[in-house]
Amino acid sequence: MQHGSTTEGMPTDEKSNRLSLWGWIRDQFHMRPPEDDEPQSWWIASTAIPLVAATTGPLANVMSVTALVVPWRSQILSYEDGTAGNLIQEGYPDPRWSISLNAISLCCGIVGNMFLLFNFTQIVRYIIALPVTIILWFISAGILCGITIATDIYNPPVGIDRVYSQGYWSAVIAAVLYFILGFVLMINMLGYFLGKYPQHFSLTGEQRTLILQMTVLVVWLLIGAAIFQRVIGISFADALYFSDVTVLTLGYGDITPTNSVGRGLIWPYAVIGIIILGLVVQSIFKFAREVHYDNVVQKHIEQKRQYTLEQSIGFDELNSSQGKHPTSGEVITPPALTRQGSKTHHHRPIRNTINALAAGRRPRILVMREEKDRFDAMRRIQSDTMRFRRWNNLIISIVAFGIVWCCGAVVFWKLEGITYFESLYFCFASLLTIGYGDFTPQSNPGRPFFVVWSLIAIPTMTMLISEMTDTVVAGFRHATDVVADYLVLPQSRVYKTSLGRIPGVSQFILSRQEKKRRERGFPLEGADESNTREIADAEEAGPSNTRSDDLAESHPHRSLEELARDPTPFELAQELAFAIRRASKQAREGKRERYSYEEWVEFTRLIQFTNPRARPPSSQRNQPANEEGLSNDEDEYGLVNWDWIGENSPMLAKQTEPEWVLDRLCESLIRYVSTQESRAVGGGTDLTEQPTLRKERDIGLDE
């Protein structure tokens, strides 16, 4: 023992290596507390996996119920199709040990599913509920695997007329589902141990509703199986298959009710089942879109925003590098983006002008034009993100549809003894809920698999159709509208626009319009021409634009030069009240309206003028404003200042623009009232100078 040894005879170097390995493994785990609100990663493990497990767990329970109530071995009595649409079979009893273990497996599966639901409702802690669910589901899978293997070894169906029934294959499917769900929940626990997210499932109310709706759908299928087993006189497994085909509106016709009682029960059962299925599909669609937006689309927006922010350039940095000051209307190209021999970049430069107005170095109109570059850059990001979201959703739906379609076809090809092309045809007709009935699952393993596959495949197909509405269908609708403008309901402005793009024709049309204006005595240029064009466009647009015209009359759009004027606080207070009314009306309509830059300038002024730190008193109005005050993004009432391509940009909010503007305007109103109240109490203002809002009719606005 020259190197020294421990009391157990282990060398010191080997022991230190083992301790260091254990220490390294222990250092990898950083379990976060439940109240931790830090950013989360591994969004698939934290959100998608728990929801998939909670919605698929009841399907495993259904297969386990079928495995318990249906004998695992059956005898073929006739090779002719019976009432159930397949060979006439009769099951014979299983051994008691098999039934007992099967019941224990079912109890473990149901209790494990209950603990998972208790975790979602926070009745049981995550660190307790999830391990219990995983252990119980693995026990269920192990018991079912043991029973199926033991049955195949010690008590298989012997004879040419004896086969494994649908109950046996339901047990196989249940064991596979329990094992897969337990394994994916272990991935969720691994993410928790690695500190990727806190010890709770970050599910919304709608996602919890999806779990409840899926559970109700599964229970409804079990109720239908129990009822139609008695009414039609078929096995529980066939009745479950019949209930599934009925609720999914497939209508194969291989199993049909043969008496008046069964036909009468179809009415309420099908209606209620279809309603439940519709709610489940809608919730799945919302969940898929929400998860995709929060974890894929938002990441895309952030990458685009960061790239745009890196390409932005401040005027101070530009002037120091070029040794000159820009003038109004001068085109400025960032030096980093200029290359010799390269083509001129088609994007306008993005200029960093936050708080530039506070410094008092440039005219207000120039600052506003500089800010418009950042605004336009964020609008381009919005448009690009909208296209990315639509087509990315469509591609994901197509891939999911293809996987479900082709993989299902492979299974039915092997189980049903048909060609792969016929299997593809059968799966496609089933996914579209056409249900011709020329091909239907007939084998004992095929029908239990079809129940599980159809409950996964039909919602996938529905999601694909919904995504096509925003892309392919929208493009077809636009093309139809264009054709209708030319052929079905022709409009003169459409032909004028198309012909105006031809150089010779456009000159002829302009000369003809000038000739007509001379004959009527109007000048060729000026305000009358623009007014006449606006009137003609309004007449061609028809009465459909009346509402928007009324809104435009009540709130005329202003140019940047007009917005550069510094109004009095009294005028701003009046505009604030009318802006709140206008924004609330647009928010109630629910339209995702996008405001122009000029409108945003007006809203921004109404939001910021009530901030006493951002606006100097009237006695100091000609002095530069406090730069520290303008740099404050928030006050005690809400958001005051933002950057168009910054993290707090209004275009990154989940609200619509009218909703976001309405919240900020209301915060500004509260801030204004609080400021006026504090001034009145302090005696620092003359009450005669308080703004008195005139009625709408006094300034020419209609009710």
From TrEMBL:
GO terms for biological process: stabilization of membrane potential. Residues 216-289, 404-472 form the Potassium channel domain. GO terms for cellular component: plasma membrane. Belongs to the two pore domain potassium channel (TC 1.A.1.8) family. It comes from Penicillium flavigenum. The chain crosses the membrane at residues 99-120, 127-149, 169-190, 210-232, 266-285, 391-412, 418-437, 449-466. Pfam families: Ion_trans_2. It is a multi-pass membrane protein. This is Potassium channel domain-containing protein. InterPro entries: 2pore_dom_K_chnl, K_chnl_dom. It is found in: Membrane. GO terms for molecular function: outward rectifier potassium channel activity; potassium ion leak channel activity.
